[in-house]
Specification:
- The protein is α/β, with parallel strands linked by helices and about 375 residues long.
- The protein folds into two domains: about 180 residues, Beta Polymerase, domain 2 (2-Layer Sandwich), CATH 3.30.460; about 170 residues, no CATH class.
- About 55% of the residues lie in helices and about 10% in strands.
- Strands 1, 2, 3, 4, 5 and 6 form a six-stranded mixed β-sheet that branches. Strands 7-8 form a two-stranded parallel sheet.
- The longest helix is centred in the middle third of the chain and has 38 residues.
- It is elongated.
Length: about 375
């Protein structure tokens, strides 16, 4: 095997300096394709990123003896990385991504299979690929003819492990000293990380199975199910699906699911059946008129049902008050609402955001 001299490396570097912008463009294009397809398939992932290999990194790699023709042999000049939350999503993404490109099976690998069952360490899926002939026929892709790129798919924890154990500038790189069982402890840490990764994946699968169970029960109107974020979200989606479909209601809790579930339990709502019995189908339009998402919807259901009970047992001052328009609207359904708000010191604001004291308002009306 011939060893490259400095002149060879200079030529290789000059070639890559000219080609790197094209590889960067290729990486961005592939990232866009993958992102669009995964989003369309509603596949969950943490992040997608892309890059062209840095010039110094390329030259460092090209200078190694194992590369006789670095331009052809180095496959990751354009790189795309998909980071998922759990392992099952890695394979879900893989199954969707593989048909999109021309995969080089010889240079692609599943690191978890390569590592084997008796070892711990870096586990990730790597694909070396090219754009398909069909895509290369399009004018905007012709410049990428015969250009390869690498796709990495890994979990968040695998990503953390890869970064901390492979960073050449960090303490954990290479062969560790034997003192104080450092190498053994490092291996145990890797094994623990892998166990946590597997447990997260197992829990995620169980939650998915529970979601399917709740959906089936809800569709059969069998609602003797304890309220939690999963069951509550599934029930509300089916109960108000027409309003969600028409963009009148956003299907979410605004990251306040724990708060609203505590309010529901304070109100005495413990199961989906309890909640369903509380909902007045004649007031669905009114609930939606006042609500932007599940959080407001559930509060309006409780207030319309029994405002006194809500502010006494469920409110907990999780929100401070209401706008005057909302107050007037609720008053149309509950004539006692003004007294209830005064009793529990719930603020009411006008359109300018200025608090209106209901007692002062009453005195002004008496004077008039």
């Amino acid at each position: 095997m011939l060893k490259k001299n400095q002149k060879n490396l200079d030529e290789i570097m000059n070639w890559y300096v000219k080609q790197r912008p094209i590889y960067r463009n290729l990486a961005h294009k592939v990232e866009s394709i993958i992102r669009e397809v995964l989003d369309s398939a509603k596949v969950s992932y943490y992040t997608i990123s892309s890059r062209a290999k840095e010039i110094e990194s390329f030259i460092s790699k090209a200078s190694k003896d194992k590369y006789t023709d670095p331009v052809k042999e180095i496959k990751d000049l354009a790189g795309i990385r998909i980071i998922t939350f759990v392992k099952s999503e890695v394979y879900e993404c893989s199954d969707i991504i593989k048909p999109l490109f021309d995969i080089d099976s010889e240079h692609s690998m599943d690191k978890s299979k390569e590592l084997g069952d008796d070892k711990v360490g870096y586990r990730s899926v790597h694909y070396v690929a090219k754009l398909t002939e069909e895509r290369l026929k399009l004018p905007e892709y012709r410049i990428f003819q015969d250009m390869q790129f690498e796709i990495q798919i890994r979990t968040i924890l695998e990503h953390a492990w890869a970064d901390i154990s492979h960073d050449r500038n960090y303490k954990f790189n290479g062969v560790l000293p034997p003192e104080n069982d450092i190498q053994r402890r490092f291996s145990l840490a890797a094994a623990t990380l892998e166990l946590v990764d597997r447990e997260f994946d197992s829990i995620a699968r169980e939650i998915s199975e529970y979601e399917k169970y709740v959906e089936q029960m809800t569709m059969r109107s069998e609602l003797d199910i304890d309220i939690n974020t999963t069951s509550l979200g599934n029930f509300l989606f089916h109960k108000f699906r027409d309003f969600i479909r028409d963009d009148q209601l956003a299907p979410g809790f605004n990251q306040n699911d724990e708060t609203i579930i505590a309010e529901l339990k304070g109100f005495g709502i413990k199961t989906l059946s309890d909640l369903n019995n509380l909902i007045d189908d004649d007031k669905l339009e009114s609930y939606i008129y006042l609500s932007s998402n599940y959080l407001g919807l559930l509060r309006h259901i409780m207030i319309f049902s029994d405002a006194e009970k809500y502010f006494k047992k469920a409110w907990g001052r999780n929100w401070h008050g209401m706008e005057l328009d909302y107050f007037e609207y609720v008053k149309g359904f509950n004539k006692d609402i003004e007294g209830i708000l005064k009793k529990y010191k719930v603020e009411v604001w006008d359109a300018r955001g200025i608090e209106i004291l209901l007692d002062d308002k009453e005195e002004e009306e008496d004077i008039a």
